[in-house]
Amino acid sequence: MVLAMAVSAVVPASIALPSLVGLLLVLAAVLLVQRVVLPRRRFTLAMARVPGPPALPVLGNSLILTGGQDEFFRLLKDCAREYGEMFVIWVGLRPFVFVQSAEACQPLLNSSQHIDKSYEYRFLNDWVGTGLITSSGSKWHNRRKLLTPSFHNKVMEDFALTSQTSVNTFIEILGKQQGVFDVLPFAKLCTLDIICDTVMGHHMDFQRNSNADYVEAIAEISGIMQRRFITPWLKPDSLFNISPLGMKQRKCVKTIHKYVDNIIEMREKELQKRAHMNGNVDIGCEPLGSKASKHRIALLDLLLEMRKDGLSDEDIREEANTFMFAGHDTSATAVSWCLYVLGKHPDVQDRILEEVNSVKSETPDGTLNFQATQKLHYLDCCIKEVMRLYPVVPLIARDLHSPLQISEHHFSIGLCVYIMQVRRGGTVRVSYSFRNFGMWS
């Protein structure tokens, strides 16, 4: 009513209602052009200067992104060879800039502003929530500070024997394989066993029960995430949620959360029972690494104890799911690359075996305990060299929240930049050779 009175006071009565509506539409169109069309035009013109495969209107490069994960990374490698240190791929109307030279990466990596992970990380939220790998800003800093003590050497030492048991099973299963085979699925089951022990304090023996619902759900949801990333029409939640993949994801998430929630409940009851019996499991009563504790402390135990620091039940579930996923997947990738590289260098294998036997001979029982592994210096150099050549995470994604210049290109807010193959492009190159051990000794 107030608006109508104001308009009637300003607009002469002789002006017809259709004219007033037309005037409002013109003003709306001007605002739309000023606020949306022109900024978008400037954005697309800036992106047009970045080389990349030809893109279609609206669809972008979606037609060449129809394959699986292998085809996607093969496309990135082909683009890197053809377009050099920087190129752009359009997924629908959203451009993704990939940089691979040390010079091009420097402005982004040196920035204290551009630290937020890409928009696509939110695809993980239904699964892992906003835990350590998906959160940003103050929540990430606070959570990281809170969880850092969980990676104390004493915690890892306590689970060394359990990890060795899982590795022995891994070796046994590999010994039964014949011919050429993919080691990664077996490595994932092994690391999942180890992570389940160390994070959840619960042994599941996934290596001998690879058809478990949790294992299948993890594998299926990982493929769904990758497909959603490269499919423009699956990015909006409203479309994804009604798609067949969205329905599959909800089923997988339900399976994963049910499994993790059950373990959290069982672990909490076990800790309460121990505390009631001997009062020796109140983690807060003993400093981390203290000999006073008779029980191994899993990450979940520490998370449950952190309730007094403000960690909610939802926070505990987030971090448990985060470490179960991120911990086993990256570790399995590292193990697989190590086995691949060592398989190509038998002489390095022989030297590692010689070092292992030498260290074992110095232990009282002739086995490798946690302290003995600290003396495997040559093996340590080999692992670091493999990580240099084959990082476990192929891409680092960052969203720009302020303008940034990379080389001669000026990028505006909202762009997602991916870092890849840093040591394999640009003027700064590092040897591809596996025998660069000098830098690690």
Describe the overall structure.
It is a single chain. With 441 residues, this protein is mainly α. The chain has a domain at 136-318: Cytochrome P450 (Cytochrome p450, Orthogonal Bundle). It has 17 helices and six strands. The chain has helices at 2-10, 17-48, 69-83, 102-109, 125-128, 137-147, 153-158, 160-175, 184-200, 213-229, 237-240, 244-278, 299-305, 313-343, 346-360, 370-373, 377-389, and strands spanning 86-91, 94-99, 396-399, 404-406, 409-411, 416-419. A four-stranded mixed β-sheet has the order 1-2-6-3. Strands 4-5 form a two-stranded antiparallel sheet. A hairpin with a 2-residue loop joins strand 1 and strand 2 (94-99). Helix 8 runs antiparallel to helix 9, helix 13 (299-305) packs antiparallel against helix 14 (313-343) and helix 14 (313-343) crosses helix 17 (377-389). The protein is globular and about 95 Å long. 23% of the residues are buried. The model is unreliable at 1-7 and 281-294 (pLDDT under 50). Its main location: endoplasmic reticulum. The chain crosses the membrane at residues 6-33. Belongs to the cytochrome P450 family. It is found in: Endoplasmic reticulum membrane; Microsome membrane.
